[in-house]
Amino acid sequence: MSDNILIDVTDGIARITLNRPEAINALTHDMLSDMYEALAAWRDDDDVTAVELAGNGERGFCAGADVRALAKVLAEGGNYLGFLETEYALDMIIANYPKPVTSLMRGITMGGGLGLGAHADRRIVYADTVMAMPETKIGFFPDVGIMTQLSRAGAVGKHIALTSATFSGGDALLLNLADESADGPLPAPLFEATWIQECYASDDPVEIARALEGHPDEAAQQAGRDLRARSPFAVHVALRALKRAEKLQLSEVLNQDLRLAERMMEVDFVEGVRALLVDKDNNPRWRWKTLEEVPTEEVDAVFSYRSSWNS
């Protein structure tokens, strides 16, 4: 068992505590494997009646997968899909667990961390909870099955998926990514922003960007700038994946996540991680510079697995 995972079973409650606080509990492959093995062992253990997921440190529950390590594996020609397969299997075992699972999503809860927490039975948020699916910032798309909820959340779901916008615990409650607040009523600013409803009516990323840029609300204009800063290819893939997820169940969305990752990660992912997290110059050199330049046939190719998909 990795030192980055703490395991405790007391009075029938099995607790998994992420213990990598210096990295906001960013998930390594070993951490994912250890959690899966623990949950698999407890599934048929009569001494365990419930499971609780938490994170050590003051900054947050989990910042997501260790994407720097994942980008390094991809750049070196390693088995990056193995990481994702383990991560998605863990998300699925949490979602289908035969015993109650509670997630305590304090502070920063993003990406793969939201995948862990949002598929539990009882999902608790706090006044300091800050969530996001920030994948389009690094040339990827919102994965770990979260498109299941975002696709059913209308304009707000589109805004979060495409721009990597942060959102509150209150928003999470309305997005069906959380069940209760430990700190009483929480604000839900994204659901209160009328410009989001007005600007995300289209299923075309270019039309959405132009609607945001042309809106009189400065917050909408900033969202337009944010959208333009994301990987154009990732935005196109994310919006199409979001639309497809409306009719899919969680297992099918996770299948879609894996198949899309297999076909698109070599485009912008390594460069996005470099610009945001390694060199930190915030100047990614995306394969296509603008949303308008992304060829439809390149997006089609990412989704070509559908011809043989029979889940």
What's the arrangement of secondary structure elements?
Blueprint: E1 5-10, E2 13-18, H1 29-42, E3 50-55, E4 60-62, H2 67-75, H3 80-95, E5 101-105, E6 108-110, H4 112-118, E7 122-125, E8 130-132, H5 147-150, H6 154-163, E9 167-168, H7 169-174, E10 180-181, H8 189-192, H9 194-199, H10 205-213, H11 218-229, H12 232-245, H13 250-278, H14 296-302
Parallel strand pairs: 2-3, 3-5, 4-6, 5-7, 6-8, 7-10
Antiparallel strand pairs: 1-2, 8-9
Helix pairs in contact: 1-3, 2-13, 3-13, 6-12, 10-11, 12-13
How would you sum up this structure, described in words?
The protein is α/β, with parallel strands linked by helices. 47% of the residues lie in helices and 13% in strands. The chain has 14 helices and ten strands. It has helices at 29-42, 67-75, 80-95, 112-118, 147-150, 154-163, 169-174, 189-192, 194-199, 205-213, 218-229, 232-245, 250-278, 296-302, and strands at residues 5-10, 13-18, 50-55, 60-62, 101-105, 108-110, 122-125, 130-132, 167-168, 180-181. The protein has a six-stranded mixed β-sheet. Strands 4-6-8-9 form a four-stranded mixed β-sheet. A hairpin with a 2-residue loop joins strand 1 (5-10) and strand 2. The longest helix has 29 residues, at 250-278. The protein is globular, with a radius of gyration of 19 Å. The model is unreliable at 307-311 (pLDDT under 50).
Provide tags for this entry:
alpha/beta, 311 residues, four-stranded mixed sheet, globular, six-stranded mixed sheet
